[in-house]
What does this fold into?
Amino acid sequence: MTIALNHTIVPARDKVESAKFFAKVFGLSFDKSAVGYFAPVRVNETLTLDFDDDYSINDRFDVHHYAFHVSDQEFDEIFTRVQEMGIPFGSGPQNLEDKRLNDWNGGRGVYFRDPNGHILELLTRDSNMKESQ
It folds into this structure.
């Protein structure tokens, strides 16, 4: 049996605005008609991020780290949108605003925050994978 992550809940202050932000940065579609209890964004054929603004207690929730392994072309496209949107970025989880990329594992990586404070990471090489895209 192949195990695949199907969806994960992303806590948000405003689920629709958070889903729109994520879709815009990552170049994905956001279907407002699909909004119900969650505001889902399909990342690929098997995974959705389900944004949920009922998840917080007193408008507080834990900040999460979401890492995305992308191709070099996808990295360029997403990183261009990050810069065009004026989103602060950095080379690591402790350096979220140093305006640098990292070159870990022989690839490129960058970190930035979404409007809810979650840390989003892009990486083109994954040390856990034998072959990279």
Remarks:
- The chain has two domains: 1-59, 63-133.
- The helical segments are 15-26, 72-84.
